[in-house]
Amino acid sequence: MKKGYFIVLFFCVSFTGKAQITKNNWLVGGEAGFFYNFNNSETINGNNSYAIHLSPNIGYFIYDKLAAGSKFDYIAGNTRSTTLLLGPFLRYYFLEKEKRVNLFLESSYNFGLDKQDKDYSNFSTKVGTAIFLNSSVALELALNYNLYRNKSIDFSSNSLSLAVGFQIHLEKEK
């Protein structure tokens, strides 16, 4: 059975072709991550927290190597709170489209509610590596920095997270 997985993985990695990070193509995917918060809020007694983070997204390449889109964040952790956020993002790939491994930078600003209907905002920046398994599918490893704010309860937190995700790059029909 392990031999079958190895053959499939070898086929995916050995497929050649340029990545679809060019103008007028779509980007669909997401990531899952784990993060640890360093809180500086008296409301929650300054306790630190941890959570899982799921983040699907959809984007469109407005220029070669530059995508704009929307992402949804679902965050659940040890504070018994669930947060849902939605907002725009920009993503830029640094290397040429022919590269099998590419570096990217993404920034987003999301806003939404938690379980107790408290308003949140989140500024996020991430840097990562996209490893193209073929011309359309990329495995991504990223380091994320998040700044969460809630003015109504005087809450803010900073977090660093490691995330793994997949992106599917869809070529526009000609």
UniProtKB/TrEMBL annotation:
Alphabetical list of InterPro entries matching this protein: OMP/PagP_B-barrel
Record-given protein name: Outer membrane protein beta-barrel domain-containing protein
